[in-house]
Amino acid sequence: MCSEAEKAQLFEAIDNNNVEKADVLLSSTVDVNVRSLEVKNRTALHLAAHAGRYDLVALLVDKHKADVNIEDSEGDIPLQLATDRHHMKIVKFLLSRNSKGREYAAHFLNTDEVEEFFQAAKANDIQRVTELLDSGVDVNSVDLSDLHRSALHVAAREGHYDLVQLLLERGADMQYEDDTDECAYHIALNNDHDNIGSLLLKTGYIPDPRDDSSVSSDTNESVSLSFLFN
Where does the record place the region Disordered (predicted)? Predict the structure, then answer.
């Protein structure tokens, strides 16, 4: 039986993302499924899942055998809290550990083929991206677990110039905006990939009035685009 002080220390460790401290407490006398009366009767796993603390979630479940299907005072399990905050890495982990609630998270889970497509794009695996496109994966598929971004968004963010070229050749939509109203062009510039911004302009990206500055399609120098809207 753990003391109130130890219980408070556990929840403080979760709040501070202190994996080592949580491990020490749970390895002594603290029950991994102890509840916080102050936060909707939630367990440490609820709180870690809600906050997106993946390492803590893994520690609680794999080492200390936290109950993945335990409900808080509102009937929510950890997977639901992670889904609501779009912590999809945690959602996938909990599902792999026999959590209920797959139907709750289904709207945010990609098919296996689309998941592999985005993993290949992030890894700049042009050969695998090409194979998946040839097999029928839509070049404009969106990542349900990442703000509905396209592979073009991903390649632009990571600075994968050759992959951006391939996706454009295969018909990627340059004007498509994710859930934050950003297209690949904005993401490229925000991540200092001006060469990709130039490529998108050269290929036909049409700036909108929000684009008060840009890069030239021929150089990497910043130029005003205000004349386009006068």
Answer: 210-230
